[in-house]
User: Fold Kelch motif family protein from Bacteroides fragilis.
Amino acid sequence: MRSLFLIFFFCYVTGKAQDRAYVVSEKDSIPLSNVYICLKDRRVIAISDEKGVFSLEKYDSLSLNDTLYFSHINYLHKKLSYGDLIKNRCTVFLKENNRVLEEVSIFSNRHLNRFLHYEILSPLKRGVYSFASVLVDGQIYIVGGSTSCGPFQSNIRSTLFWEKYSNMMYRYDIKQDKWETIRHKFRERAYHTAGYYDGKIFILGGKRLSETRIVDYLDNAIEIYDIKRDTVWTDYTNPHQATLLGSVVYKDNMIVLGGVKKVLQNNEGVYSDEMHLWNLKSGYWYELGKMPIRQAPETILVDHCIYLIGNRNGGGWSIECYNLLTGAWANAGRLLYRLGWPSLAYHNDIIYIFEQGVVQTFNIKSRQVRSYMIDLKLKSPALYYFDGKLYILGGFYMGDPSRNVYSVDLKEFDKTEVDYYYNNVR
Assistant:
Protein backbone atom coordinates (compact mmCIF):
# COMPACT_ATOMS: atom_id res chain seq x y z
CA MET A 1 0.00 0.00 0.00
CA ARG A 2 2.85 2.39 0.88
CA SER A 3 4.54 1.65 -2.48
CA LEU A 4 1.32 2.41 -4.32
CA PHE A 5 1.03 5.68 -2.43
CA LEU A 6 4.60 6.70 -3.36
CA ILE A 7 3.99 5.88 -7.02
CA PHE A 8 0.79 7.90 -6.99
CA PHE A 9 2.54 10.80 -5.24
CA PHE A 10 5.42 10.80 -7.74
CA CYS A 11 3.03 10.79 -10.69
CA TYR A 12 1.07 13.61 -9.10
CA VAL A 13 4.21 15.72 -8.62
CA THR A 14 5.33 14.99 -12.18
CA GLY A 15 1.95 16.03 -13.50
CA LYS A 16 2.00 19.26 -11.50
CA ALA A 17 5.49 20.03 -12.86
CA GLN A 18 4.13 19.77 -16.34
CA ASP A 19 1.23 22.04 -15.41
CA ARG A 20 3.24 24.84 -13.82
CA ALA A 21 6.86 25.72 -13.04
CA TYR A 22 8.66 28.93 -12.14
CA VAL A 23 11.78 30.89 -13.09
CA VAL A 24 13.13 33.40 -10.56
CA SER A 25 16.25 35.45 -9.95
CA GLU A 26 18.80 33.69 -7.75
CA LYS A 27 19.69 37.02 -6.14
CA ASP A 28 16.30 38.17 -4.85
CA SER A 29 13.77 35.51 -6.01
CA ILE A 30 11.99 38.01 -8.28
CA PRO A 31 9.94 36.23 -10.99
CA LEU A 32 11.56 36.43 -14.43
CA SER A 33 9.46 36.93 -17.54
CA ASN A 34 10.47 36.17 -21.14
CA VAL A 35 12.78 33.32 -20.18
CA TYR A 36 13.03 30.88 -23.08
CA ILE A 37 12.88 27.16 -22.32
CA CYS A 38 14.40 25.04 -25.08
CA LEU A 39 15.26 21.44 -25.79
CA LYS A 40 18.66 20.23 -26.92
CA ASP A 41 17.79 20.86 -30.57
CA ARG A 42 17.21 24.56 -29.71
CA ARG A 43 13.46 24.17 -30.16
CA VAL A 44 11.63 26.69 -27.96
CA ILE A 45 8.92 24.83 -26.03
CA ALA A 46 7.87 27.46 -23.48
CA ILE A 47 8.32 31.10 -22.45
CA SER A 48 7.82 32.34 -18.89
CA ASP A 49 5.12 34.94 -18.29
CA GLU A 50 5.22 38.09 -16.15
CA LYS A 51 4.89 35.94 -13.00
CA GLY A 52 7.80 33.74 -14.03
CA VAL A 53 5.42 30.87 -14.77
CA PHE A 54 5.80 28.45 -17.67
CA SER A 55 3.99 25.25 -18.59
CA LEU A 56 5.19 22.02 -20.19
CA GLU A 57 1.80 20.33 -20.27
CA LYS A 58 1.92 19.98 -24.06
CA TYR A 59 5.15 17.98 -23.79
CA ASP A 60 4.02 14.97 -21.77
CA SER A 61 6.54 12.81 -23.64
CA LEU A 62 9.46 14.41 -21.75
CA SER A 63 11.55 11.90 -19.84
CA LEU A 64 13.28 12.60 -16.53
CA ASN A 65 16.66 12.57 -18.32
CA ASP A 66 15.71 15.13 -20.97
CA THR A 67 17.69 18.36 -20.66
CA LEU A 68 15.96 21.73 -20.58
CA TYR A 69 17.84 24.93 -21.47
CA PHE A 70 16.86 28.25 -19.88
CA SER A 71 17.99 31.53 -21.40
CA HIS A 72 17.39 35.23 -20.83
CA ILE A 73 19.38 38.13 -22.25
CA ASN A 74 20.16 39.55 -18.77
CA TYR A 75 20.93 36.23 -17.04
CA LEU A 76 23.41 33.41 -17.46
CA HIS A 77 22.10 30.46 -19.41
CA LYS A 78 21.29 27.34 -17.42
CA LYS A 79 20.58 23.73 -18.26
CA LEU A 80 18.63 21.38 -16.06
CA SER A 81 17.26 17.90 -16.47
CA TYR A 82 13.51 17.46 -16.31
CA GLY A 83 14.03 15.20 -13.29
CA ASP A 84 16.03 17.87 -11.48
CA LEU A 85 13.31 20.40 -12.22
CA ILE A 86 10.86 18.18 -10.35
CA LYS A 87 13.34 17.65 -7.47
CA ASN A 88 13.76 21.44 -7.19
CA ARG A 89 10.02 21.78 -6.61
CA CYS A 90 9.54 23.10 -10.14
CA THR A 91 11.56 26.25 -9.51
CA VAL A 92 14.54 27.38 -11.60
CA PHE A 93 17.00 29.97 -10.30
CA LEU A 94 18.96 32.08 -12.81
CA LYS A 95 22.11 34.01 -11.95
CA GLU A 96 22.35 37.61 -13.15
CA ASN A 97 24.75 38.27 -16.02
CA ASN A 98 26.68 41.46 -15.31
CA ARG A 99 28.86 41.45 -18.40
CA VAL A 100 27.85 43.62 -21.35
CA LEU A 101 26.85 41.54 -24.34
CA GLU A 102 28.49 42.28 -27.65
CA GLU A 103 26.68 45.12 -29.44
CA VAL A 104 24.11 45.32 -26.62
CA SER A 105 24.10 47.96 -23.88
CA ILE A 106 21.71 47.52 -20.98
CA PHE A 107 20.68 50.55 -18.97
CA SER A 108 18.63 50.24 -15.81
CA ASN A 109 16.65 53.38 -16.64
CA ARG A 110 15.99 52.46 -20.25
CA HIS A 111 12.53 51.19 -21.11
CA LEU A 112 12.36 48.65 -23.91
CA ASN A 113 9.16 47.79 -25.72
CA ARG A 114 7.91 44.22 -25.62
CA PHE A 115 6.79 44.33 -29.26
CA LEU A 116 8.11 46.12 -32.32
CA HIS A 117 6.03 49.20 -33.10
CA TYR A 118 4.62 49.52 -36.62
CA GLU A 119 2.60 51.95 -38.70
CA ILE A 120 -0.53 51.08 -40.67
CA LEU A 121 -0.42 52.29 -44.28
CA SER A 122 -2.85 52.40 -47.19
CA PRO A 123 -4.31 48.91 -47.71
CA LEU A 124 -4.34 46.76 -50.84
CA LYS A 125 -7.36 46.84 -53.13
CA ARG A 126 -8.24 43.38 -51.80
CA GLY A 127 -6.70 40.73 -49.57
CA VAL A 128 -4.19 38.40 -51.21
CA TYR A 129 -1.38 36.00 -50.29
CA SER A 130 1.16 33.74 -52.02
CA PHE A 131 1.64 36.33 -54.75
CA ALA A 132 4.83 37.35 -56.57
CA SER A 133 6.37 40.76 -56.00
CA VAL A 134 9.37 42.98 -56.76
CA LEU A 135 10.69 46.32 -55.49
CA VAL A 136 11.69 48.80 -58.20
CA ASP A 137 12.81 52.38 -57.49
CA GLY A 138 10.68 52.85 -54.40
CA GLN A 139 7.64 51.10 -55.86
CA ILE A 140 6.43 47.61 -54.98
CA TYR A 141 4.70 45.56 -57.68
CA ILE A 142 2.60 42.56 -56.67
CA VAL A 143 0.99 40.20 -59.17
CA GLY A 144 -1.37 37.24 -58.90
CA GLY A 145 -1.75 35.31 -55.66
CA SER A 146 -4.59 33.59 -53.86
CA THR A 147 -7.68 35.45 -52.69
CA SER A 148 -9.26 32.28 -51.28
CA CYS A 149 -10.74 32.19 -47.80
CA GLY A 150 -10.62 29.19 -45.50
CA PRO A 151 -7.94 26.71 -44.43
CA PHE A 152 -4.42 27.69 -45.48
CA GLN A 153 -3.30 25.27 -48.17
CA SER A 154 0.39 25.19 -48.96
CA ASN A 155 0.71 22.86 -51.92
CA ILE A 156 -2.58 21.75 -53.41
CA ARG A 157 -6.18 22.79 -53.68
CA SER A 158 -8.48 22.39 -50.70
CA THR A 159 -11.74 20.49 -51.02
CA LEU A 160 -13.17 22.55 -48.16
CA PHE A 161 -13.61 25.85 -49.94
CA TRP A 162 -13.82 27.53 -53.33
CA GLU A 163 -10.41 28.70 -54.50
CA LYS A 164 -9.75 31.85 -56.45
CA TYR A 165 -6.49 33.23 -57.85
CA SER A 166 -5.91 36.84 -58.84
CA ASN A 167 -5.04 38.03 -62.35
CA MET A 168 -4.24 41.58 -61.23
CA MET A 169 -1.02 43.56 -60.81
CA TYR A 170 -0.89 46.41 -58.33
CA ARG A 171 1.80 49.04 -57.81
CA TYR A 172 2.45 50.65 -54.42
CA ASP A 173 4.32 53.95 -54.29
CA ILE A 174 6.09 53.91 -50.93
CA LYS A 175 6.76 57.64 -50.60
CA GLN A 176 3.21 58.62 -51.58
CA ASP A 177 1.60 55.70 -49.69
CA LYS A 178 -0.62 55.16 -52.71
CA TRP A 179 -1.85 52.13 -54.68
CA GLU A 180 -2.39 51.94 -58.43
CA THR A 181 -3.90 49.13 -60.53
CA ILE A 182 -1.97 48.14 -63.66
CA ARG A 183 -4.40 48.07 -66.60
CA HIS A 184 -3.36 44.65 -67.93
CA LYS A 185 -4.86 41.32 -66.91
CA PHE A 186 -2.32 38.63 -66.09
CA ARG A 187 -2.65 34.88 -65.74
CA GLU A 188 -4.56 33.68 -62.69
CA ARG A 189 -1.85 31.98 -60.68
CA ALA A 190 -0.46 31.65 -57.15
CA TYR A 191 2.65 30.28 -55.39
CA HIS A 192 4.81 31.71 -58.20
CA THR A 193 7.82 34.03 -58.31
CA ALA A 194 9.01 37.18 -60.06
CA GLY A 195 12.23 39.07 -60.74
CA TYR A 196 13.20 42.50 -62.05
CA TYR A 197 15.79 43.17 -64.74
CA ASP A 198 16.44 46.04 -67.16
CA GLY A 199 13.06 47.73 -66.81
CA LYS A 200 11.07 44.51 -66.98
CA ILE A 201 9.33 42.21 -64.50
CA PHE A 202 9.61 38.48 -65.23
CA ILE A 203 6.81 36.31 -63.76
CA LEU A 204 7.08 32.51 -63.77
CA GLY A 205 6.19 29.28 -61.98
CA GLY A 206 3.29 28.66 -59.64
CA LYS A 207 0.01 26.95 -60.42
CA ARG A 208 -3.31 27.78 -62.04
CA LEU A 209 -6.80 26.37 -61.60
CA SER A 210 -9.09 24.64 -64.08
CA GLU A 211 -12.35 26.33 -65.07
CA THR A 212 -14.20 24.23 -62.50
CA ARG A 213 -11.55 25.10 -59.89
CA ILE A 214 -11.42 21.45 -58.92
CA VAL A 215 -8.08 20.63 -60.58
CA ASP A 216 -4.89 22.67 -60.55
CA TYR A 217 -1.93 22.62 -62.94
CA LEU A 218 1.64 23.84 -62.91
CA ASP A 219 1.84 27.01 -64.99
CA ASN A 220 4.38 26.75 -67.80
CA ALA A 221 4.01 30.35 -69.02
CA ILE A 222 6.42 33.21 -68.38
CA GLU A 223 4.90 36.69 -68.45
CA ILE A 224 7.13 39.70 -69.05
CA TYR A 225 5.90 43.16 -68.14
CA ASP A 226 7.75 46.19 -69.55
CA ILE A 227 7.26 48.96 -66.99
CA LYS A 228 8.15 51.92 -69.20
CA ARG A 229 6.21 50.76 -72.25
CA ASP A 230 3.36 49.31 -70.16
CA THR A 231 3.21 46.18 -72.31
CA VAL A 232 2.98 42.45 -71.54
CA TRP A 233 4.03 39.44 -73.56
CA THR A 234 4.17 35.71 -72.85
CA ASP A 235 6.87 33.10 -73.37
CA TYR A 236 6.25 29.37 -72.98
CA THR A 237 9.84 28.14 -72.59
CA ASN A 238 10.19 27.26 -68.92
CA PRO A 239 12.08 24.08 -67.92
CA HIS A 240 11.63 24.82 -64.20
CA GLN A 241 7.92 24.34 -63.58
CA ALA A 242 7.09 24.24 -59.86
CA THR A 243 5.19 25.98 -57.09
CA LEU A 244 6.90 27.66 -54.14
CA LEU A 245 10.15 27.96 -56.09
CA GLY A 246 12.90 30.30 -54.97
CA SER A 247 14.46 32.84 -57.32
CA VAL A 248 17.01 35.67 -57.48
CA VAL A 249 18.29 37.95 -60.24
CA TYR A 250 22.08 38.03 -60.46
CA LYS A 251 23.73 40.24 -63.08
CA ASP A 252 22.06 39.27 -66.42
CA ASN A 253 20.57 36.05 -65.09
CA MET A 254 17.53 34.82 -63.21
CA ILE A 255 18.30 31.78 -61.05
CA VAL A 256 15.44 29.55 -59.92
CA LEU A 257 15.72 26.85 -57.26
CA GLY A 258 13.66 23.92 -55.99
CA GLY A 259 9.95 24.08 -55.36
CA VAL A 260 7.10 21.55 -55.41
CA LYS A 261 6.72 19.66 -58.70
CA LYS A 262 3.56 17.76 -57.84
CA VAL A 263 1.47 16.58 -54.91
CA LEU A 264 0.59 12.96 -54.20
CA GLN A 265 -2.82 11.67 -53.17
CA ASN A 266 -1.75 11.63 -49.52
CA ASN A 267 -1.14 15.41 -49.76
CA GLU A 268 2.65 14.97 -49.60
CA GLY A 269 4.59 17.25 -51.94
CA VAL A 270 7.20 15.97 -54.37
CA TYR A 271 10.00 18.49 -53.90
CA SER A 272 12.65 19.44 -56.43
CA ASP A 273 16.41 19.74 -56.03
CA GLU A 274 16.88 21.29 -59.47
CA MET A 275 18.53 24.64 -60.17
CA HIS A 276 18.30 26.52 -63.46
CA LEU A 277 19.89 29.67 -64.80
CA TRP A 278 17.97 31.78 -67.30
CA ASN A 279 20.07 34.32 -69.19
CA LEU A 280 17.75 37.28 -69.55
CA LYS A 281 19.71 38.79 -72.44
CA SER A 282 19.88 35.74 -74.70
CA GLY A 283 16.77 33.96 -73.43
CA TYR A 284 18.68 30.67 -73.05
CA TRP A 285 18.17 28.32 -70.10
CA TYR A 286 20.96 26.31 -68.46
CA GLU A 287 21.02 23.59 -65.81
CA LEU A 288 22.90 24.82 -62.76
CA GLY A 289 23.24 21.53 -60.91
CA LYS A 290 21.44 20.13 -57.89
CA MET A 291 20.78 21.40 -54.40
CA PRO A 292 22.03 19.20 -51.51
CA ILE A 293 18.42 18.41 -50.55
CA ARG A 294 15.02 18.67 -52.20
CA GLN A 295 13.31 21.74 -50.85
CA ALA A 296 11.09 24.78 -51.42
CA PRO A 297 12.95 27.59 -49.66
CA GLU A 298 12.62 31.34 -49.53
CA THR A 299 15.68 32.91 -51.15
CA ILE A 300 17.47 36.24 -51.03
CA LEU A 301 20.61 37.45 -52.80
CA VAL A 302 23.40 39.15 -50.85
CA ASP A 303 26.41 40.08 -53.00
CA HIS A 304 27.32 36.81 -54.79
CA CYS A 305 25.61 34.46 -52.33
CA ILE A 306 22.07 33.09 -52.37
CA TYR A 307 20.71 32.52 -48.87
CA LEU A 308 18.04 29.82 -48.54
CA ILE A 309 15.82 30.08 -45.47
CA GLY A 310 12.72 28.22 -44.33
CA ASN A 311 12.75 24.90 -46.20
CA ARG A 312 9.16 23.66 -46.35
CA ASN A 313 10.26 20.04 -46.86
CA GLY A 314 10.43 19.10 -43.17
CA GLY A 315 13.21 21.56 -42.37
CA GLY A 316 12.87 25.18 -41.46
CA TRP A 317 15.75 25.57 -38.98
CA SER A 318 18.84 26.02 -41.15
CA ILE A 319 20.25 28.96 -43.07
CA GLU A 320 22.03 27.73 -46.19
CA CYS A 321 24.24 29.65 -48.57
CA TYR A 322 25.07 28.97 -52.22
CA ASN A 323 28.15 30.82 -53.53
CA LEU A 324 27.60 31.81 -57.16
CA LEU A 325 31.33 32.37 -57.73
CA THR A 326 32.55 29.00 -56.49
CA GLY A 327 29.43 26.85 -56.78
CA ALA A 328 29.95 25.75 -53.16
CA TRP A 329 27.23 25.12 -50.61
CA ALA A 330 27.63 26.00 -46.93
CA ASN A 331 25.54 25.98 -43.77
CA ALA A 332 25.54 29.61 -42.65
CA GLY A 333 23.67 29.21 -39.39
CA ARG A 334 20.66 28.04 -37.44
CA LEU A 335 17.44 29.90 -36.71
CA LEU A 336 15.77 30.32 -33.33
CA TYR A 337 12.30 29.47 -34.63
CA ARG A 338 11.38 26.83 -37.15
CA LEU A 339 9.91 28.42 -40.27
CA GLY A 340 7.53 27.35 -43.00
CA TRP A 341 6.37 30.54 -44.73
CA PRO A 342 8.97 33.22 -43.99
CA SER A 343 9.34 36.57 -45.72
CA LEU A 344 12.84 37.98 -46.25
CA ALA A 345 14.47 41.39 -46.62
CA TYR A 346 18.08 42.58 -46.44
CA HIS A 347 19.93 45.71 -45.38
CA ASN A 348 23.42 46.47 -44.11
CA ASP A 349 24.64 42.92 -43.28
CA ILE A 350 21.29 41.93 -41.74
CA ILE A 351 18.73 39.54 -43.21
CA TYR A 352 15.29 40.22 -41.72
CA ILE A 353 13.09 37.12 -41.45
CA PHE A 354 9.40 37.57 -40.65
CA GLU A 355 6.72 34.99 -39.93
CA GLN A 356 3.68 34.93 -37.65
CA GLY A 357 4.50 37.47 -34.99
CA VAL A 358 8.28 37.09 -34.92
CA VAL A 359 11.06 38.96 -36.71
CA GLN A 360 14.37 37.12 -36.63
CA THR A 361 17.53 38.92 -37.70
CA PHE A 362 20.59 37.15 -39.08
CA ASN A 363 23.91 39.00 -39.24
CA ILE A 364 25.78 37.52 -42.22
CA LYS A 365 29.16 38.54 -40.76
CA SER A 366 28.87 37.65 -37.06
CA ARG A 367 26.26 34.93 -37.80
CA GLN A 368 24.30 35.98 -34.73
CA VAL A 369 20.54 35.41 -34.79
CA ARG A 370 18.16 37.50 -32.70
CA SER A 371 14.40 37.46 -32.41
CA TYR A 372 11.90 40.23 -31.76
CA MET A 373 8.16 40.00 -31.17
CA ILE A 374 5.67 41.90 -33.33
CA ASP A 375 1.89 41.81 -33.00
CA LEU A 376 1.27 40.69 -36.60
CA LYS A 377 0.32 37.01 -36.98
CA LEU A 378 0.67 36.87 -40.76
CA LYS A 379 1.72 34.07 -43.09
CA SER A 380 3.10 34.56 -46.59
CA PRO A 381 3.20 38.38 -46.88
CA ALA A 382 5.76 40.33 -48.89
CA LEU A 383 8.63 41.93 -46.95
CA TYR A 384 10.88 44.69 -48.29
CA TYR A 385 13.45 47.17 -46.99
CA PHE A 386 13.38 50.73 -48.28
CA ASP A 387 14.81 53.95 -46.90
CA GLY A 388 15.22 52.91 -43.27
CA LYS A 389 12.02 50.89 -42.95
CA LEU A 390 10.64 47.40 -43.45
CA TYR A 391 7.39 47.09 -45.38
CA ILE A 392 4.97 44.17 -44.85
CA LEU A 393 2.24 43.68 -47.46
CA GLY A 394 -0.69 41.27 -47.71
CA GLY A 395 -0.45 37.72 -46.42
CA PHE A 396 -2.84 35.36 -44.68
CA TYR A 397 -4.36 35.67 -41.20
CA MET A 398 -7.01 33.65 -39.33
CA GLY A 399 -8.61 32.08 -42.39
CA ASP A 400 -8.66 35.20 -44.54
CA PRO A 401 -6.28 36.92 -46.97
CA SER A 402 -5.03 40.25 -45.62
CA ARG A 403 -5.14 43.55 -47.50
CA ASN A 404 -3.16 45.40 -44.84
CA VAL A 405 0.19 47.14 -45.30
CA TYR A 406 2.55 47.96 -42.44
CA SER A 407 5.93 49.62 -41.98
CA VAL A 408 8.51 49.13 -39.23
CA ASP A 409 11.25 51.71 -38.74
CA LEU A 410 14.60 49.97 -38.18
CA LYS A 411 15.17 52.29 -35.22
CA GLU A 412 12.42 50.36 -33.42
CA PHE A 413 14.72 47.34 -33.09
CA ASP A 414 16.96 49.31 -30.70
CA LYS A 415 13.87 50.20 -28.64
CA THR A 416 12.53 46.64 -28.41
CA GLU A 417 13.48 43.71 -26.20
CA VAL A 418 15.63 41.04 -27.78
CA ASP A 419 13.49 38.01 -27.09
CA TYR A 420 16.24 35.51 -27.71
CA TYR A 421 19.63 35.39 -29.39
CA TYR A 422 22.05 32.74 -30.57
CA ASN A 423 25.65 32.90 -31.75
CA ASN A 424 26.22 30.38 -34.53
CA VAL A 425 29.59 28.71 -34.07
CA ARG A 426 31.83 29.02 -37.08
About this structure: Residues 1-18, 99-109, 151-160 have pLDDT under 50 and may be disordered. Residues 2-19 form the longest helix (18 residues).
